[in-house]
Amino acid sequence: MSGEEQVEVKNKQGAFSINQEGEDLFLTVFPSEGEGKAVSEAEIVAELDKRGVVEYDQKTITHEINKPSAQAVKIATIGQSEIHVEISKDRMEATLQIDMSKNAPLIAWEEVLEKINASGIVFGFDEAEARKALERPGNRVVIAKGQPAVNGIDSQIKYHVDLENKGKPVELDDGKVDYKDLNLFTIVMQGDLLAEKIPSVPGVPGSDVLGIAIVAKAGKEVPLPLGKNVQAVENTITAGIAGQVVVANNKISVVPVIEIKEDVDLSTGNIEFVGNVVVKGSVQPGFTVKAEGNIEVYGTVSGGIVEGKNVVIKMGIQGMHRGYVKAVENVVAKFIENATVQAGNDVIVNEVILHSRISAGKKVIVEGKRGLIAGGNILAGEEIRAKMLGTQMSTSTELEVGVNPQLREEYQNIRREIKKVEVSLEQTQKALSILRGMDQTTMPQDKREMLLKLTKAQFHLVGQVETMRNRMTDIELAFEEMKYGRIKVAEIMYPGVKVVIGTLVKPIREALKFSSLYAEDGEIRIGSFK
Predict the structure, then answer these.
(1) How many helices (H) and strands (E) does the chain have?
(2) pTM for the whole thing?
């Protein structure tokens, strides 16, 4: 209301006026003349009510009515109304708050809408919510929301061959292994579908409340993992020849299987192959068979070296205190004697393990007709299981679970390597700091090239450190799982056996039958075989 605005009410001779100057409201009461009727308090209050004035100086009004001075006296202060529209930093949300002090004039919806429009909000506006803010002064209300972008989905490779169970002997319902069905190879015929690429999905752009578009990340296209002896047909991969499927270095290939009709000896020399190897005879002392795929030996391995993904020795391993057998995943044999055997997962033996050093990342299982482990040192990450452990003659036999030697060695190597990489990273960052501190406009060309080279090196080193730390975390989780390692004997464990579970040691001094040994509360406990 301007300072010029004035309302005047008169009775016969009495009168009053109410004027506003700035934020102050003034009352002037004119006295009546003669016997004319004077101004009443009810008339003044009624006028104040029309103006929305709820707090005023009652005493001053009463005084002026009783003793009109014809002078303007202050009777109230007019409050202010404020409209607050706030937009979040990411511009994905806008709020409205209306603050009204006492005696403040009412705000019209048009004023609120004008304020909102002036803020630039053009997307996601909710008028109903905005009206709630007008109806409930003092409350902060969300009146607009942006639409986040939906990132695209990368293309994916879907395999149509079973790569999970390959190389694992078939396990029967009772937990034993069927040695007649070793399930070692994934064989395909020419033209068989091996894999297909599922196309990427494009992203959906979004918008903030100001109407600014939010770009969506597009889905990446991955190339078909084409290896050897395969064909690309549109977005699919088919076998170019009949043979064994091998996935290596993120590529799928079909490779033939090398088959040795007789023994591996002087007539063949050492064997080394990228695919699978089948030896119909035996591996003789001093000879080597190495393959990136699986190895199957129909006879025995006698003092030779055999390394493969999965190794199956149908007759058995006679180590003769020389050579070794090593598998990335599983070793399966009829017997093992005086030998060194290492498997990333399981060592599965039908008859006996005698005086040998066995290391398995997961399990050592001897549950055939005899099912005996006697002599030597047997290590397993998760479990050792047999019918009989040790002998009546108290043959020294050490059984250790809860440790994976390969993982332990890898963990130690990573710790050493990460220190070297961190030193290189620190030196690179110091050099970068010096170069970046130079005047970029006068920097020589060789310094610019060095800056670019060091920047790339820094990203590479940071990636190396992150990869190694992630691997260390994975190994630590594996170590945690190994704490629950067990040694199980289905029939009898003889004195002379030493049991080690993690860091706990327990020499067996009395025969145990149908038992399961495990660590709990800092000691090795004996339970029933399950």
Answers:
(1) 6, 38
(2) 0.50
